[in-house]
Write a sequence for this structure.
């Protein structure tokens, strides 16, 4: 392993200011659940330049509360870059000097692509709870439409973390010839009962909030703020590791002494309340979208239609894979990544696996980490060399 | 290790039908938080017979939602025995043919001892949110009053699991000469930041329920049912192990196929909703008591006043200790028990440690388990032999 020290002058840079684009697709889409979307739109961003052979395209699939904005800034004064900015940009692991990178918001979400907060053409009202269930398989179909639109017959790489990594698997299974490499990070071949249980508690928090109004909260000029807050607190708590929370907060008291009250006593309470509150009030995340995303996580299970045989589910795959897991990620643990690696190998696929030391739990896939960066960058360089990019 | 096969005729039996008793204490009690309870009552049960020297008494300390009813039945047709009935009774680990066992409900709880649902003599209304914060140190003081009343100068054993194990530690520290043995099961020397965070999510679920009314729900003829349900779902989920949930439910679908709806899809959802619903509607557990119990968990930290030095905190202890942990308990993991064992040993105390294989997570301390039973019974036999009982 070589440690590269970067001088200021050749430090990785940002893709800069980016502007989302919109693709409207007027073909009706029959979803896995049986419902039909008469039309839908996809909001996406691109970074870098598609080469003449269209052989350098990378698709980024987002996780639960993510979106198309994976890198760069939305305006000159924007302080918050895209969610995977540490790993996408000129000179970064996904080097935009080499690759043409596409980030897309999934349908059912709420960042511009058609979802529960969008207007239902049949009623001229927001879909709300009538927006149909969407699955990873549905998303992959819509992402393939975007690829068609962009003139990309085959992705050099499809990459994603967590729920994003499930979409990567779905791509490799459903469109074997349309990607050369699958980069699956902090993901799993399917959720465990415990994972589903955490999602269910979050859903119940939202759905039992009196402001939820059976999903018609927008029509009632309200939002289920408490439910969203609780769901986010719980999500946040489980995406961090016990170690990290211990290091970060320990049992530190907010006011330096015990007050014997229900106000914040420990710093960790303050942090969690702040995160929950911020998400519920400032993120504008649609509660129906939150529910849909957790259900998409629950439903992903490619082995189901193969008698729980993951090797059989992976049989159609043609892509090579990079699988990455993080030591303290207890919601998508290294064991779950190893299930995928083992099944891919048994199915005769070429796969590289890296277990990255990190104290950051599930969130590690979003955060700077030297070894993770090196593994990721090395893999992407191999992709570039093999494809003569 | 000897395996004893029990024939039907000498199989351990129940303590039978028991009747709770009440002790009213009219001395004012100054609590750790500074508040004063002018008077209070304790509800308790006893099993077995106190010997002449009063040397065979065992105190059982309960956990978050537990109570004084640790063994036996409340009437002839009662189908649900006390919460530790597997381990308390004639011929059981805590053998009521040998020991005189006392179960007591703690103040602040809601099973008969004075708590938030009790009438505040100053207002003639339920205390509600005005009931003061209680700590393990407060409970131990009240339990010592009960010991005085029963004529017990020194407990042969003080035993408890989880929050109960914290009370055992508190006893050993605060009243060194009043117990010969401390049995600390599935417990910790203090909660981690992650533990506190789980408690905080549960509290927020209760406190943000519109039916909570700032704790005055009884005065409003209602209860914060959704909050209690969410708190219990979350508690339940974290008291089970990932392994057990996998074995018990896996990804089994309730109706045998996917319905793409927010109704129950997976058996684990059904189970959790049932548990949450049952607790919120049928247990009559007071929401203010639930909050108080989680705070008592958060606050327990004997090392705090010793510069985080647990060895110093344990220095006054005279009791010998048995510490038991369960392999899949991730809320009170074996590592946490080992912290106690290590500190007790460094403080020069005599301590036996057992790590019990179990798939049942934190709940294991309540459930039948052959090795746990053998360790527990062997320790109690040693206590009996040493004290010539």
């Amino acid at each position: 392993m070589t440690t590269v020290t970067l001088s200021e002058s050749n430090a990785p840079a940002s893709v800069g200011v980016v502007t989302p684009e919109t693709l409207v697709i007027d073909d009706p889409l029959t979803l896995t659940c049986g419902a039909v979307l008469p039309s839908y739109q996809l909001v996406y961003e691109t970074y870098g330049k598609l080469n003449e052979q269209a052989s350098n395209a990378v698709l980024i699939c987002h996780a639960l509360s993510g979106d198309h904005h994976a890198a760069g800034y939305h305006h000159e004064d924007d302080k918050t870059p895209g969610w995977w900015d540490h790993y996408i940009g000129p000179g970064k692991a996904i080097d935009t000097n080499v690759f043409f990178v596409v980030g897309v918001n999934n349908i059912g979400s709420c960042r511009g692509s058609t979802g529960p907060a969008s207007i239902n053409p049949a009623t001229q009202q927001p879909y709300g709870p009538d927006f149909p269930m969407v699955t990873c398989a549905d998303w992959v179909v819509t992402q393939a439409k975007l690829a068609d639109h962009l003139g990309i017959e085959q992705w050099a790489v499809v990459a994603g973390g967590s729920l994003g990594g499930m979409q990567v698997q779905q791509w490799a299974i459903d469109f074997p010839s349309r990607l050369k490499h699958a980069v699956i990070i902090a993901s799993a071949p399917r959720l465990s009962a415990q994972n589903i249980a955490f999602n269910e508690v979050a859903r119940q928090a939202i759905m039992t909030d009196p402001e939820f109004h059976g999903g018609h909260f927008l029509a009632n000029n309200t939002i289920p703020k408490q439910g969203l807050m609780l769901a986010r607190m719980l999500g946040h708590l489980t995406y961090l590791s016990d170690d990290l929370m211990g290091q970060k907060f320990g049992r530190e008291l907010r006011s330096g002494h015990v007050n014997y009250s229900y106000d914040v006593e420990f710093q960790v309470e303050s942090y969690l309340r702040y995160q929950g509150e911020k998400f519920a009030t400032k993120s504008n995340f649609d509660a129906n979208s939150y529910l849909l995303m957790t259900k998409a996580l629950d439903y992903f299970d490619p082995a189901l239609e193969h008698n729980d045989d993951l090797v059989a589910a992976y049989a159609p795959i043609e892509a090579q894979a990079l699988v990455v897991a993080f030591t303290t990620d207890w919601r998508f643990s290294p064991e779950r990544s190893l299930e995928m690696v083992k099944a891919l190998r048994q199915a005769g696929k070429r796969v590289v696996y890296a277990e990255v030391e990190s104290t950051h739990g599930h969130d590690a896939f979003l955060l700077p980490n030297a070894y993770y960066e090196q593994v990721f960058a090395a893999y992407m360089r191999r992709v570039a060399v093999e494809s003569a990019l």
The CA atoms of residues 181 and 320 of chain B lie 5 Å apart. The first helix of chain B runs from residue 136 to 150. Chain B touches chain A through 53 residues (CB under 8 Å). The first strand of chain B starts at residue 21 and ends at 25.
